[in-house]
Amino acid sequence: MSIFEKTRATLFPFMEPGAGRNYATSVSGRLRRSTLVLLRWMAIAGQTAAILLVAFGLGYQLPLPECFAMIGLSVMINLAVTFMLPLDRRVADLEALAQLGFDLVQLAALLWLTGGMNNPFALLFMAPVVTSATTLSRPVLAILGGMAASVSLFMVYDFRPLPWSESGFELPFMFRMGAWSALIVGMFFTALYAWRSARESRRMSEALRATEAVLAHEQKLSALGGMAAAAAHELGTPLATIRLTAKELKREVKDGTHMAEDLDLLLSQTERCRDILKQLSKRGDAGDLYHDNLSYEILLDEACEPYDGIKSGVSIDVELAGEGDPPIIQRRAELVYALKNLIENAVSFAETEVVLIGNWSSQDISLTIVDDGPGFDAAVRDRLGEPYVTARPEKKRAGGLGLGLFISKTLLERTGAKVRFANKTEGGARVSIIWPIGAILGTST
To answer: Which residue ranges make up each domain of the chain?
Structure first.
């Protein structure tokens, strides 16, 4: 093993092969090593500028050798991390704890040399803690918070005085305790706010990724259906030629011969192929105006069809009303999936019926899905459509994550719709969807 490899193994054991078997690290994957290095360079620059300004600009006597020794130690750590480890990697919690813990100790040493809690820059103890709150796990946050509280409390009692006068400057003990208490309270609330904000952001990102996965899956299915319909269309012509040729050959062959029997078999198989191609063409989206567009009534029938009769005693009715004929709707994978998901949800809660009420006018197209079930729980009704919020009772969730309504609402909003969740006055749930008139219209044939 080279000197370089030995040094890396000594300073950074968690980077060695197989380290995961020896260290209980939890890789959060949200903090890059380059970010830690950049923040430390910024701290080094700020600390150097502050010391030089106080020592040479304001003329105060500071323990410069000790202060620059602490800053130099940070420089050495940064150079070691930069040259020994890849900066474009996301760090494990253990490594992040080691680096941010060092930053806390280095800052504490500088503050101890320059007044302890008398130094207004003690506020910087919050920086590593808040950083861990936004990107790392709760155990790491707790450890760093405990370290910051401990070293800052130590400096309430023991520190080198600030050189503001020949006899030094020292605030009353009660004031230092008050400053320490304010630091702890501010650190706690700031870290809590940052942690909650980061947690909500991560949950939203995960939910949106789930939505993108669902949409990609539906688009893939739609594309496969289009390929099937296109294949059925292309195969129709050669199949018709084979069938015509077989009929002509049969006219020239005497009945009862082996050749006649083979031709009869060939004709029966071509007829079967025609039936299969017809079924394929009905399933798919061939990409022409006939398949890309469908009437509002057919769209709702298609969305209802998989769930009609799926639950015993529950019927699905469609009621349409509007100005003139039903509008022609553009077939979109996200639109069909979202409607099916909402209808499935209504059927699962309904007692006897689910009603789809479709309306259209010169200004908008609307759809209301109502059921006669228990309705949305009042405790979550105002938050329905947010990720990880479910309308199902605990015993009926069956492992669900509460993403169904969020995904449906997000996909519908991508088509330009406004979605509202409410309860009927006489009991049951109501989902209202409204599109501006031009949002989902297709092209009339």
So the answer is: 3-171, 213-287, 291-436
Cα-based distances in Å from 339 to 66, 305, 359? 69, 11, 15
Q: Are 338 and 412 in contact (CB under 8 A)?
A: yes
**Bridge partners for 432 per DSSP:** 368, 420
Distance (Å, rounded) from C-alpha 105 to C-alpha 143?
13
d(CA 271, CA 7): 77
Q: Which CATH superfamily is domain 291-436 in?
A: Histidine kinase-like ATPase, C-terminal domain (3.30.565.10)
pLDDT tens digits along 279-338: 666 554 444 444 568 888 888 988 888 888 888 888 899 999 888 888 888 877 788 888
Pick left, alpha or beta for residue 59 (phi over 0 → left; psi -120 to 50 → alpha; otherwise beta).
left
pTM score over 0.70: no
Given this model, what pLDDT does residue 434 score? 93
Three-class DSSP labels, the chain: CCHHHHHHHHHCHHHCCCHHHHCCCCCCCCCEHHHHHHHHHHHHHHHHHHHHHHHHHCCCCCCHHHHHHHHHHHHHHHHHHHHHCCCCCECCHHHHHHHHHHHHHHHHHHHHHCCHHHCHHHHHHHHHHHHHHHHCCHHHHHHHHHHHHHHHHHHHHCCCCECCCCCCECCCHHHHHHHHHHHHHHHHHHHHHHHHHHHHHHHHHHHHHHHHHHHHHHHHHHHHHHHHHHHHHHHHHHHHHHHHHHHHHHHCCCCCCHHHHHHHHHHHHHHHHHHHHHHHHHHCCCCCHHHHEEEHHHHHHHHHHHHCCCCCCCEEEEEEEECCCCCEEECCHHHHHHHHHHHHHHHHHCCCEEEEEEEECCCEEEEEEEECCCCCCCCCHHHCCCCCCCCCCHHHCCCCCCCHHHHHHHHHHHCCCEEEEEECCCCCEEEEEEEECCCCECCCC
Q: Which of 10-24, 239-253, 254-268, 315-329 shows the lowest mean pLDDT across its residues?
A: 10-24
